[in-house]
């Protein structure tokens, strides 16, 4: 397996997320960081964009998905985003960090990080 990676950092999305009733009526900010395994050799040698992992399309898919769904937990966002990227873009492995800045008054941020692969059972 290639050790090459494609990163998307600081993808900021507004969505409905939270377990409390008041949270289910407002949009809150989530910030996603992704690290995706992708063999960059073919694109690097050919300079052919069709051989790249299209990070613009990945970002658009994630943004559209998260904006149009309601969640209670950032853990759920992470799992569903990982599944979406693996299925839609044939990524073999990825790491997803979902942050919810301001979720705790006296903390700058709370976050979860997961790693998933296509062959995970």
Features:
5 strands; 3 helices; 121 residues; alpha+beta; single chain; GTP Cyclohydrolase I, domain 2; 5-stranded mixed sheet
The N- and C-terminal alpha carbons lie at a distance of 18 Å
Helix content: 25-40%
> What do we call the CATH homologous superfamily?
GTP cyclohydrolase I, C-terminal domain/NADPH-dependent 7-cyano-7-deazaguanine reductase, N-terminal domain
CATH C-level: Alpha Beta
Strand content: 25-35%
Tell how many strands the DSSP assignment holds: 5
Overall SS class: alpha+beta
Order of helices and strands: EEHHEHEE
Q: Tally the helices: what do you get?
A: 3
List segments where confidence is low: pLDDT < 50 over at least 5 consecutive residues. Answer: none
Protein model, in words:
The chain is of the alpha+beta class and 121 residues long. It has a single domain (5-117), classed as 2-Layer Sandwich (GTP Cyclohydrolase I, domain 2), CATH 3.30.1130. The protein is 29% helix and 32% strand. The protein has helices spanning 41-46, 55-67, 74-89; strands at residues 5-17, 28-37, 70-71, 93-99, 111-117. Strands 3-1-2-4-5 form a five-stranded mixed sheet. The two termini are 18 Å apart.
């Amino acid at each position: 397996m290639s050790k090459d990676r494609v990163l998307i950092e600081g993808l900021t999305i507004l969505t409905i997320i939270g377990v409390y009733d008041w949270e289910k009526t407002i949009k809150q900010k989530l910030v996603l960081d992704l690290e995706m395994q992708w063999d960059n050799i073919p694109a690097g040698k050919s300079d052919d964009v069709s051989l790249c992992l299209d990070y613009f399309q990945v970002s658009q898919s994630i943004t559209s998905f998260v904006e149009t769904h309601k969640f209670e937990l950032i853990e759920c966002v992470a799992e569903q985003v990982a599944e979406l990227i693996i299925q839609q873009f044939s990524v073999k492995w990825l790491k997803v960090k979902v942050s919810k800045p301001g979720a705790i008054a006296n903390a700058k941020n709370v976050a979860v990080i997961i790693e998933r692969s296509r062959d995970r059972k």
